[in-house]
Specification:
The complex is a heterodimer of chains A (about 550) and B (about 190). By secondary structure, chain A is α/β, with parallel strands linked by helices. Chain A contains 20 helices and 18 strands. Chain A has a 6-stranded mixed β-sheet, with helices on both faces. In chain A, strands 8-10-9-12-13 form a 5-stranded mixed β-sheet, sandwiched between helices. In chain A, helix 4 runs parallel beside helix 5, helix 11 crosses helix 14 and helix 16 runs parallel beside helix 17. Chain A is globular, with a radius of gyration of 26 Å. By secondary structure, chain B is of the alpha/beta class. Chain B has a single domain, classed as Pyruvate-ferredoxin oxidoreductase, PFOR, domain III (Pyruvate-ferredoxin Oxidoreductase, domain 3, 3-Layer(aba) Sandwich), CATH 3.40.920.10. Chain B has 7 helices and 6 strands; from the N terminus they run E-H-E-E-E-H-E-H-E-H-H-H-H. A 6-stranded mixed β-sheet of chain B has the order 2-3-1-4-5-6, with helices on both faces. In chain B, strand 5, helix 3 and strand 6 form a beta-alpha-beta unit. In chain B, helix 1 crosses helix 6. The longest helix of chain B is centred in the C-terminal third of the chain and has 21 residues. The radius of gyration of chain B is 15 Å and the shape is globular. Chain B starts with a strand and ends with a helix. The chains are: A alpha/beta (about 550), B alpha/beta (about 190).
Chain lengths: ~550, ~190
Amino acid sequence: MEKLLLLGAEAIAQGAIDGGMSGVYAYPGTPSTEITEYVQHNKSAIDRKIHSQWSANEKTAMEAALGMSYAGKRSMVCMKHVGLNVASDAFINSAITGVNGGLIVTVADDPSMHSSQNEQDSRFFGKFAMMPILEPSNQQEAFDMAYEGFELSEKFKIPVLIRITTRLSHSRAGVERRETKNENRLTYPEDPIQFVLLPSNARKRYKGLLSIQSLLEQDSELSVYNTYFPGRDKSLGIIACGIAHNYLLENYPDRKCPYPILQISQYPLPFSKVERIVNECESVLVLEDGYPFVEEQLKGFLEVNSKIKGRLDGTIPRDGELNPDIVGKALGRQVKTGMKVPAIVKNRPPELCAGCGHRDIYNALNETMKEFGKQKVFSDIGCYTLGALPPWNAINSCVDMGASITMAKGAADAGVRPSVAVIGDSTFTHSGMTALLDCVYENTPVTVIISDNATTAMTGGQTSPATGRLEEICIGLGVKPEHVKVLTPLPKFHDEMVKVFREEMMYDGVSVIIPRRECIVQTVAKSKKEKSLKTEEVA
Amino acid sequence: MKSDIILSGVGGQGILSIAATIGMAAIENNLHLKQAEVHGMSQRGGAVQSHLRISEKEIASDLIPEGSADIIISVEPMESLRYLPWLKADGWLVTNTTPFVNIPDYPDMKELLSEIEKLPHHISLNADDLARQVKSPRSSNMVVLGAASPFLDIPYQSLENGIKKIFGKKGEKIVQLNIDALKVGREFAEKNKN
């Protein structure tokens, strides 16, 4: 079969396309964005009209994917780890409704927080929902698990969680494709009230979910992804989950590890295989990228199992992603150390691009706030979060999608005047609209600045459902039209911006200011494209 | 055969095009490849790197262990030094000397170059100048790749073929500009390697 060079994220997309997927639903979020983008640009996915348009947020995406599954078709929903918090209501309940067509929930975790607010481990969510979890160790397994995941989901009539981490998502390797499967036909669930979680029915469904747990464990026990490799030296046994298995093997260039290894890439944990390695070996080292998920289960609250080593006993650092060196040290191997970084090398943090409209907004905002005092600006998730860094130091919060407006509301309720929120257009439609409605409901004095760059910029410029309808949305939610102001964030309009900011901050009610200018990265990309089209015409 | 390569630069400087070109060349030679990239926040003008591993044998880790990279290829001088902990003692450092200054405390260029000079095997070249000389001002990244090419276990022709595959969609002219840039970098390294 055809061999492709794919990112882990792309391998999942290709596996899902080849596995008979009819639709993918997602909101962009690093490191998960490339899954959906791959489907959007894949020729056969376009020909087959596989759904791939972005959703407003992870919850709407999860629900839409569940709806497609209801209709008997295979669907996937993708998000980053914190997106699963947003989708969690639908996610947890989808295990209780179960599925009709196969449903895969792909979540990309970000240990070491390369591009995130936390490093939560989605395997806990999978266990919480009592779903099977697949955790690929390489790009080929990423493809295979997406390809086979729909059937696993249909076999047990339950969604399947695929959990990856940044390293696999954003690393490329060769992947062999498999024969393309047909998409499912439209069929309705056999039981018309399968998806009706009224308490009376939910209790039945929940008992059903509980009753298949032993079957899920049995499937894990037999899974090719959970393999026991015997070893002659039983002073140590190693449980290596997902990508951690690669870091383990890297420490043995001839691939001959003397210790028994249990490789785990499917959960719930396979009981007898885990029991075997724990019984056979004097101590057991657990290698997992993320939280000590397996380690905690083995260790138990009273730590009766003191032979278990990992992140909890300090053998491996408690936070941050794994790498070959951390694993090597945990194994007691001689690890090479390279040269030191010369002292003259300085940090180079990310920054707002030259020519970015957010810069002009923060310049105007900082000047305005000189009159009103410090620490009154709540912000949100996006490029504009970089306004927290020098030279602006302009914002005082970044917690979760949409929290700028609601935190500004709470602070206003507590007496902060003015109470200011800075949020992006895409983040606003993701989770800011209900927050604004709360403000309108009580006419809370807040000044909401929606910095509209007409795209979802931080993740690479995906479309934003807010584009072209922000004023309508705000007025529709009940903001008075005379307090919805649109500005152009450019240096030449600096004074005007300061004036409008000041006026609206003085107003004792809800106001929304929309400084609007296209993301400079998008503007440059478009002009390059036009230029190259012209050159082609000339040629 | 095994090459562990660290690519470094500042977000937006084109290290992923270097990675893609080497990747294509590796595939043409039926080699295994793993390449870890950085996406997301750091791409906004922050420090970025990529671990690129090529081998005849299957590769385990997506990340290169410390002290074992064969070469650092950098499109920016200060960034070339940030990843020294990964370079093996006798490894090569190939870097552009044109600084990308977007921080207030960017170090003194003389001091920076003297740190690079301390390494036993290094090539430092003004890739931006060389790119302009061959009328390909936006291909300084390919000049740097050309300068690194004598130290990669990959036939030079395969890198050219890689460029054709990566830039083919953008037209014959863009392909040729990148090949010219690759060549001028190669020639510089051949003259200046010790």
